[in-house]
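User: I'm writing a short methods note and want a consistent example. For Flagellar motor switch protein FliM, I'll paste the sequence; you return only the structure tokens, no commentary, since I'll be parsing the reply automatically.
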Amino acid sequence: MAEEVLSQNEIDALLSAISTGEMDADDLKKEETEKKVKVYDFKRALRFSKDQIRSLSRIHENFARLLTTYFSAQLRTYVQISIASVDQIPYEEFIRSIPKKTILNIFSVAPLDGRIVLETNPNIAYAMLDRMLGGRGESINKIEGLTEIETKIMSQMFEKAIDSLQEAWSSIVEIDPQLEEFEENPQFLQMVSPNETVVVISLNTEIGESSGMINICIPHVVLEPIIPKLSVHYWMQTETKEREPGEYEALTRNIQKAEVEMTAVLGETTITIEQFLHLAQKDVIHLNQSIAEPLALNVDDEKKFLVQPGKKKNKVAVQILEEYKGGDFDDE
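Assistant:
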């Protein structure tokens, strides 16, 4: 157990309090012998470190950006999705926190065990549905359940949306998410035991003038095999991983095969629109380039060499005289 070191001022104040009777030495001894107890709630077992939670937050920030792009393209309206919170709570608490009527998409994430849930607030889900059916994207307060056609439209949309999760997780593990169930009542959803720890990623979602939450519920059993990969140490190792020698050679070969456009500039000039409109056959345009000066050879619109014009095997050609070293500052 770590010992606390007192400063000289604190020692003097303590001795003064004992000598004046403000503090009893026997009470101090009694306090030291008492065991310090910390309350621990087994129903809210914290099975993920702060470091791992931060890694999950980073992964799903990328997922939120990908989801924003996907829904913007599908719905053709303003969509903004961002992370609100990442919490670890018992599964029972997650079920109690969502509406009694909501949109639940249950996915398997092979090769990982277990399933994850993508819960979409009805306020957002019905705005999406209205937009998909040609409406303005207004939220509809539906008391009755979804029709078969509406259910099919919603499930297909979220089935394609979950592909973004596959891309966001690719830095940690390659998964193959598959839609297994589509539910509206959370009471019918029993994936894990009520006290099982789950990670809930809440996403603030705005679609047009409607707003709500999209929640991703990931049980501990799903993340258990990849928990070591959620540490900062793993991310640093991944980022600093050295390339294989063969990769540099392949990269060099591919760069050498890249094609670039080269243009020899004979000269430039400036004329008015009126002069341009009255140009006729046999008119002569005076350039700013002297015939005695070398030409500029541009590589992808950047001046790289000084050349002189000529012919080679009856074809117009240029001969490189020297590398251009004027730089952008000389051009200005």
